[in-house]
From TrEMBL:
<dbReference type="InterPro" id="IPR020593">
    <property type="entry name" value="G-glutamylP_reductase_CS"/>
</dbReference>
<comment type="function">
    <text>Catalyzes the NADPH-dependent reduction of L-glutamate 5-phosphate into L-glutamate 5-semialdehyde and phosphate. The product spontaneously undergoes cyclization to form 1-pyrroline-5-carboxylate.</text>
</comment>
<dbReference type="GO" id="GO:0005737">
    <property type="term" value="C:cytoplasm"/>
</dbReference>
<dbReference type="InterPro" id="IPR016161">
    <property type="entry name" value="Ald_DH/histidinol_DH"/>
</dbReference>
<feature type="domain" description="Aldehyde dehydrogenase">
    <location>
        <begin position="11"/>
        <end position="289"/>
    </location>
</feature>
<dbReference type="InterPro" id="IPR016163">
    <property type="entry name" value="Ald_DH_C"/>
</dbReference>
<comment type="similarity">
    <text>Belongs to the gamma-glutamyl phosphate reductase family.</text>
</comment>
<dbReference type="InterPro" id="IPR000965">
    <property type="entry name" value="GPR_dom"/>
</dbReference>
<protein>
    <recommendedName>
        <fullName>Gamma-glutamyl phosphate reductase</fullName>
        <ecNumber>1.2.1.41</ecNumber>
    </recommendedName>
</protein>
<dbReference type="Pfam" id="PF00171">
    <property type="entry name" value="Aldedh"/>
</dbReference>
<dbReference type="InterPro" id="IPR015590">
    <property type="entry name" value="Aldehyde_DH_dom"/>
</dbReference>
<comment type="pathway">
    <text>Amino-acid biosynthesis; L-proline biosynthesis; L-glutamate 5-semialdehyde from L-glutamate: step 2/2.</text>
</comment>
<dbReference type="GO" id="GO:0055129">
    <property type="term" value="P:L-proline biosynthetic process"/>
</dbReference>
<feature type="domain" description="Aldehyde dehydrogenase">
    <location>
        <begin position="305"/>
        <end position="376"/>
    </location>
</feature>
<keyword id="KW-0521">NADP</keyword>
<dbReference type="GO" id="GO:0004350">
    <property type="term" value="F:glutamate-5-semialdehyde dehydrogenase activity"/>
</dbReference>
<dbReference type="InterPro" id="IPR012134">
    <property type="entry name" value="Glu-5-SA_DH"/>
</dbReference>
Length: 420
């Protein structure tokens, strides 16, 4: 069985590499035509895709998957509509491929610049969310990359149904069907092959739980774009407008629990803690959110559970929130940089200077002023969709859209020059 998986993955890799050569030369019109054909195929297949998702949901309930995974797995008609809107947004985005920048003449007479080009073949490994299948495929195609998708076993039926529509759209448009390949086996050996096929795969994007991403990062022989977890913070500063802070802190935590940009720790300045904490606690109580607080928090909120050191590091992905009272912006920044995951952190303040200090000091891929962390998302950032969020500092950081799936190469224009 191991040999057959290896052979299967080798074939997938070879086909992806060949397809990537075609995509790298494809015009914007050709790529947009393919995406439009995929849109039509998906729309015509909505009932079949939602039915396939229901099969996955039934299995997930039988297997007692936790609520966060169930939330990520479910495809409702509204979420399906959102998927199609994201695809339309990608179609309307400017194609980055072929853009030439920084043109300059050198003393020798040559002219040089940089041209934006695709990465080549993207391998993506992800859990639960079937919408990722479409988001990743559309971004890869628009940026001229072939992509190999390996979804979780819990979303197998959904992913295969979406893949069928994508394949139909590619076939209609004349682009290679191997431009988007969804792995058809749940055997974990396929993942081991994918992350070590450096001759065929240029970058790996893992998207899922911390255990999955740690395994990929440790075992991959291909560069990885990743984030391990989403331990996001909101800091209510002493000069915050509490009428802004209340809905932001509520939204950041309770809009959706099982997402990487949900707030997991609320930091409150000691100067406003006595006024703010009882008011926000009342709102959280209505949502049945358990609060785990530091000693200063518990003096104000008697019902809060004592927070442990581990709580400050934890991504709950559920209705639990850590709460800490801090002495000021310096302690808030220090706490975020020590315990956070460098994903997304927000300050609520009316003081411009303190906001600037927070922006400069917090070492995260997205830093916000007076806004919910839930905005850290490719769709909300105008990227159409995202292939993932990167907390790395090299190549791509934050939501990874079209430009994050490209690189640049030097180009030189000469007219007979030789080096002296």
């Amino acid at each position: 069985m191991q040999e057959s998986i290896e052979q299967y993955m080798q074939t997938v890799g070879q086909q992806a590499r060949q397809a990537s050569r075609v995509l790298a030369r494809a015009s914007t019109q050709t790529k947009n035509d393919a995406l439009s054909a995929i849109y039509t195929a998906l729309k015509n297949s909505e009932a079949a895709i939602l039915a396939a998702n229901q099969i996955d949901m039934n299995k997930a309930h039988s297997n007692n998957l936790d609520s966060a995974l169930l939330d990520r797995l479910e495809l409702t008609p509204a979420r399906f509509k959102g998927m199609l809107q994201g695809l339309n947004d990608v179609i309307s985005l400017v194609d980055p491929i072929g853009e030439i920048t920084d043109m300059a003449y050198r003393p020798s007479g040559i002219q040089l610049g940089k041209m934006r080009v695709p990465l080549g073949v993207v391998g993506m490994i992800y859990e639960s969310r079937p919408n990722v299948t479409l988001e990743a495929a559309s971004l890869a195609l628009k940026s001229g990359n072939a992509i190999i998708l390996r979804g979780g076993s819990e979303a197998l039926e959904s992913n295969q149904a979406i893949a069928k529509a994508i394949q139909h759209g590619l076939q209609v448009s004349g682009l290679p069907e191997a431009a988007v390949q969804v792995i058809n086996t749940t055997d974990r050996a396929a993942v081991g092959q994918l992350i070590t096929m450096s001759e065929y795969v240029d970058v790996i994007v893992p998207r899922g739980g911390k255990g999955l991403i740690e395994r990929i990062t440790n075992d991959a022989r291909v560069p990885v774009i990743k984030h391990l977890d989403g331990n996001c913070h909101v800091y209510v500063e002493a000069q915050a407008d509490l009428l802004k802070a209340l809905p932001i802190a509520l939204n950041a935590k309770t809009h959706r629990y099982g997402v990487c940009n949900a707030m997991e720790t609320l930091l409150v300045d000691e100067k406003v803690a006595e006024e703010f904490l009882p008011r926000i606690a009342e709102l959280y109580e209505e949502k049945q959110v358990e609060l785990r607080g530091c000693p200063a928090t518990r003096r104000i909120l008697e019902n809060a559970v004592p927070a442990s050191e581990e709580d400050w590091y934890t991504e709950y992905l559920g209705p639990i929130l850590a709460v800490k009272v801090v002495s000021g912006v310096e302690e808030a920044i220090e706490h975020i940089n020590k315990y956070g995951s460098h994903h997304t952190d927000s300050i609520i303040t009316e003081n411009y200077s303190i906001a600037r200090e927070f922006l400069a000091g917090v070492d995260s891929s997205s830093v916000m002023i007076n806004a919910s962390t839930r905005f850290a998302d490719g769709f909300e950032y105008g990227l159409g969709a995202e292939i993932g969020i990167s907390t790395d500092k090299i190549h791509a950081r934050g939501p990874v859209g079209l430009e994050g799936l490209t690189s640049q190469k030097w180009i030189v224009f000469g007219d007979g020059q030789i080096r002296q």
